[in-house]
Amino acid sequence: MNKFLSNVSKLTLGIAIMTAAASCNQNTSGTSATKGDSTSSNVASDKVSNKIVYVNADTLSAQYEYFKDAKTKLEGKAKKAQENLQSKGQAFQRELAEAEQKAPTMSASERQATEERLARKQQELAQLNQNASSSLAQDEQTEMTAVYNTITEYLKKHAQENGYQYVLTYSQTNPAVIYADAKLDITKEVVAALNKEYKAKNTAKK
């Protein structure tokens, strides 16, 4: 269970998106073609370079309220499950100690029945632990998939509206991008927009 809590604290968004905004790009290229030589080479160069932007996944996971709420929710479930298992485990240990104390005064049949009962309880505890871990893993997958889908849907829309061909992701723990110009970093505006949407959804639910 401690391992799961550790995993929850290291959750990653994995938001690498390579969006080819076909319709948006077609419209943009069509408009550029009609301008002909009136567009300077510098402007054209800037427009091409700005079609690739990136989001800092570390910043996004630290500042996106939906992600933070999902993480807190998962950690709460993990803590509750751990406390429940710990309580049952301690009760089993007390029962085991009591049985060991009484063992010298038990008959052979009583001792055998007690051993079988305790063995069943031990198996039940092991199964309960396994079920709790599986349930928490499923909850984590469900929560993170929902967060991931929300982010990717917004970024697809944002890319199409701004003519971006690619939205890359950067993370210190998984640096697929070695270097990127800070001018291409759209994390701040993405976080602000996502938090605004999340707040609006929560307000609507109340």
UniProtKB/TrEMBL annotation:
<dbReference type="GO" id="GO:0005829">
    <property type="term" value="C:cytosol"/>
</dbReference>
<dbReference type="InterPro" id="IPR024930">
    <property type="entry name" value="Skp_dom_sf"/>
</dbReference>
<dbReference type="InterPro" id="IPR005632">
    <property type="entry name" value="Chaperone_Skp"/>
</dbReference>
<dbReference type="GO" id="GO:0050821">
    <property type="term" value="P:protein stabilization"/>
</dbReference>
<comment type="similarity">
    <text>Belongs to the Skp family.</text>
</comment>
<dbReference type="Pfam" id="PF03938">
    <property type="entry name" value="OmpH"/>
</dbReference>
<feature type="signal peptide">
    <location>
        <begin position="1"/>
        <end position="22"/>
    </location>
</feature>
<feature type="region of interest" description="Disordered">
    <location>
        <begin position="85"/>
        <end position="120"/>
    </location>
</feature>
<protein>
    <submittedName>
        <fullName>Periplasmic chaperone for outer membrane proteins Skp</fullName>
    </submittedName>
</protein>
<keyword id="KW-0732">Signal</keyword>
<dbReference type="GO" id="GO:0051082">
    <property type="term" value="F:unfolded protein binding"/>
</dbReference>
